[in-house]
Amino acid sequence: MPRRIYNFNPGPAALPPRVLEHIQAEFLDYKGSGMSIVELSHRSKLFEEVINDAASRIKRLLGLRDDYQVLFLQGGASLQFAMVPINLLPAKRSADYVNTGTWATLALEQARRLGRTIRVVASSEDREFTYIPRDVAVDPAAAYLHITSNNTIRGTQWQTFPNPLGVPAIADMSSDIMSRVFAPEPFGLIYAGAQKNLGAAGVTVVIIRRDLLERVPEDLPTMLQYSTYAKSNSLYNTPPCFAVYTVQLMMKWLEEEIGGLANMGATNRRKAILLYEVLDRSGFYRGTAEKESRSLMNVTFRLSSESLEEIFLTEASRQGFAGLRGHRSVRGCRASLYNGVPLAAVEALVSFMAEFERKHG
Ligand code: PMP
């Protein structure tokens, strides 16, 4: 048996062993082709089946109607910060953004850098992004409303999404897509880098409502137009074949082994509750996000001093727990509990934390 540790990395992150074993088993000879998935033509029938199956599973899992299309792009979620406004925000209009932390800030800064007019309609910057703002007064004439569904660094997550009637919502769901059930109706576009809940790094999934494709300016560089990917089944140029394949396998695992988003959501909730209970039990660990905004995906916490945090992280690492260091911009600790992290890993972490508290509390 290969050595596997408890992986709480923020992304790239843990994938289910079943998925990794599947990749391993067919890596040298993909479905009798005599070639590896990384050696096949992206124009082959075999790869076409992979990309189509990945897209259909995403649509089924999210319960998307046919007016949504799933696209596979490169450039990470970071490129979407710019692609969203250049495709969907005409120079004469304005868009509304909610600022809930680092990634949301980067998204709105990219729109500004492109000379677009945006309004920050709500922000949690006043309390160091430790909560999700409640009142979001959207301009009915806005081209869209942009939110970040889960704030990977600060450990906050929208519990219910705003529904700005008539204004399409756009969400960066990089760190919580496929983690729970939600109603897709308010969304005109959803994007997510694959490397947390969807598969391997290298592909970005964009889900777009087809009517928004009509906004794409004709004079944009071809590779920056959403319509290029929509028209070509994301095969205008060579896509990141291996990464798309990992998305297909993750979605197959989620549908066939987990049984869909309701089951995944229930497990994710159990995982997070276990950990938040430890944080709330005594004053030894302190959760950094306000309770009603807590993320089920990234649990952020502090200990009483930075030196104790260092001891905690060193000891955790010695006992086989990886990825618990908080983001370098905020420090502290963070456990990322994405779909690929099993309940057993969280149970092990919770016992480790209790034991550490007994020793150092
Ligand atoms: N948005 C969120 C919410 C993220 O967590 C991240 C990465 N951690 C990004 C965007 C940036 O993603 P990428 O590295 O794929 O550009």
How is this structure best described in words?
It is built from nine helices and 14 strands. It has 361 residues and is of the alpha/beta class. Helix 1 (17-25) packs across helix 6. It has two domains: 17-258, 3-Layer(aba) Sandwich (Aspartate Aminotransferase, domain 2); 260-360, Aspartate Aminotransferase, domain 1, CATH 3.90.1150.10.
Distance between the termini: 36 Å
> Which oligomeric form is depicted?
single chain
Helix/strand/pairing category: alpha/beta
Major pleated sheet: 7 strands, mixed
Low-confidence stretches: none
Radius of gyration using CA atoms only: 21 Å
The percent range for strand residues is 15-25%
Report the principal-axis shape.
Answer: globular
Number of domains: 2
List cofactors, ions and other ligands: 4'-deoxy-4'-aminopyridoxal-5'-phosphate
Query: How much helix is in the residues?
Result: 25-40%
Tell me the series of helices and strands, N- to C-terminal: EHHEHEHEEEEEEEHHHEEHEEH
Per CATH, the architecture of the largest domain is 3-Layer(aba) Sandwich
Q: Please report the first level of CATH classification, the CATH class of the largest domain.
A: Alpha Beta
**Strand line-up in the sheet with most strands:** 2-10-9-8-5-3-4
CATH topology of the largest domain: Aspartate Aminotransferase, domain 2
The DSSP helix count reads 9
Mean pLDDT: 97
- Count of individual beta strands: 14
CATH level-4 homologous superfamily of the largest domain: Type I PLP-dependent aspartate aminotransferase-like (Major domain)
